[in-house]
Amino acid sequence: MSKENTGSPVYSIPLRYRKMENLHIVFWLLKDIGWCMVWKPLGIAMIFPTLIISIIIAWRTRQYMAELTHNLAITFWISANSYWMISEFLHFDEKIVFGAVTFKHLAMVPFTLGVLVLAFYYGYYHPTHKEEDEEIVEG
Prior knowledge:
- The protein has five helices and four strands.
- With 139 residues, the protein is mainly alpha-helical.
- The chain has one domain (2-138).
- Strands 1-2 form a two-stranded antiparallel ribbon. Strands 3-4 form a two-stranded antiparallel ribbon.
- Helix 2 packs antiparallel against helix 3 (65-89).
- The longest helix has 25 residues, at 65-89.
- The model has no long low-confidence stretch (mean pLDDT 91).
- The chain crosses the membrane at residues 38-59, 68-86, 106-124.
């Protein structure tokens, strides 16, 4: 962490990490364009770099709980989103698993995991570690 001229804390990301994050956005957009346009090879191929980079980003930020939890939530979101896309591409999204639950609804598992990770952070970790967060910011 560094401070601007105003004395406000600044979270600094190494340039090589920022370049990877920016490339991650390109892959994510290409995946979703493939999904939207029903270009199955593009959509499915972009799952791998999008998901791998999100995991790498989460790993690299593991020492900062705020960054780690948000990056894990993004990884779960991409996983859910990718599963949902595949279920539509392969036409099993509307098939019944049980009751009124379809295979598409199974995407709620990783979506829910992402929400639970953030609930842990905001509901427990952040309120009980305020001193630690302030030390990191002032660091």
